């Protein structure tokens, strides 16, 4: 039994044990070697030159801008409104459809407007008949009063003639006083009756003239209503008067539109403007007339801030930009663009091209020293105007110095960083 326990180990088992020991030793040695290689880099932090962007401080103009987003919209938009209350029978042109002058966009049922026009015509005819009747009545009444007046005047003349005769007889002593007084009373009575009829004739003339003017005024009003209804009915053709594109139309057939309600919009796509939106935080810096840069596919187009919407919705302010080149070939309807509102300008400033670190830090940068660059040193700076591409340097940097503008937030706690080629 002792002989069995003193037997030599299997050679294959010894080889496997030896290999495991050698592998463990090699792994430990590799780890130590890696630690020795990385330790200097840990003790001396550095960045790879290929992974950073270095810009040179220079002199040049700097614009202070407010960055906003914008949408290209047509410069001119024709709004079609319904001149009458009507029902939409058919929608002939949908949004996006091109139209030419004379193209009909909608078919409206104008039977209600035609009925209103017919009723106005009927009322107008009635008033005209009423006016004609008043004129006939006036002529008849005045003719009757004229006949009566003529008769009374004749009676007054006869009474006057008799009075003259009675007075002559009275003077000769041939007529009693009572008879003379009777003749005087009859002459006076005839004159009073003539005056009464003359006054009645003038009153009738004034009364009928007022009635005629009232009816004539009603006729004028009805004629105006009739002409207005006829014009509205004539304009209810929903035809385009210019070439363009339909941007909106009443979406539902059978819908009732009221008088003055918008039924379609037609955009003129030959020229454009920009509608911008920005946070109300910057609203105090906005003013009409400020210069604007609109970036269309990277190409800047100049313009002017034309109008500011006084209403703030959900913390957003809307404004309109009029472009100097409103017909630029790159402009397209509903195109999203970047809008830069220029709020300040410095013609000759020390400037540095912007980058992630410049935008984030603001008060310190890493200045590159050595050629080829061996390291970068942290330096405090005072920045001024901030534009889309450049930022103004007021203090801390001089033209010709090189600055790391890449994101260096991982090295904010360091004063010196190495640069590996």
- How many helices does DSSP assign? 5
The portion of residues assigned to helices is: 25-40%
Order of SSEs? HHEEEEEEHHEEEEEEEHEEEEEE
CATH architecture of the largest domain: Beta Barrel
> Cα distance, first to last residue?
72 Å
Q: What low-confidence regions span 5 or more consecutive residues with pLDDT below 50?
A: 1-5
Q: Looking at this structure, what is the CATH superfamily of the largest domain? A: Efflux pump adaptor protein, beta barrel domain
Order of neighbouring strands in the sheet with most strands: 1-19-15-14-18-2
- What's the level 1 CATH class of the largest domain? Mainly Beta
Derived structural class = alpha+beta
Strand segment tally: 19
CATH topology of the largest domain: the name is: Elongation Factor Tu (Ef-tu), domain 3
Largest sheet: 6 strands, mixed
Number of domains: 3
From the alpha carbons, calculate the radius of gyration and give it in angstroms. 52 Å
**Percentage of β-strand residues:** 25-35%
Q: Mean pLDDT, nearest integer?
A: 80
Query: How would you describe the shape?
Result: elongated
Describe it.
It is a single chain. The protein has 421 residues and is an alpha+beta fold. 38% of the residues lie in helices and 33% in strands. Helix 3 (111-171) packs antiparallel against helix 4.
Provide keyphrases for this structure.
421 residues; alpha+beta; Elongation Factor Tu (Ef-tu), domain 3; OB fold (Dihydrolipoamide Acetyltransferase, E2P); 3 domains; six-stranded mixed beta sheet; six-stranded antiparallel beta barrel; 5 helices; 38% helix; elongated
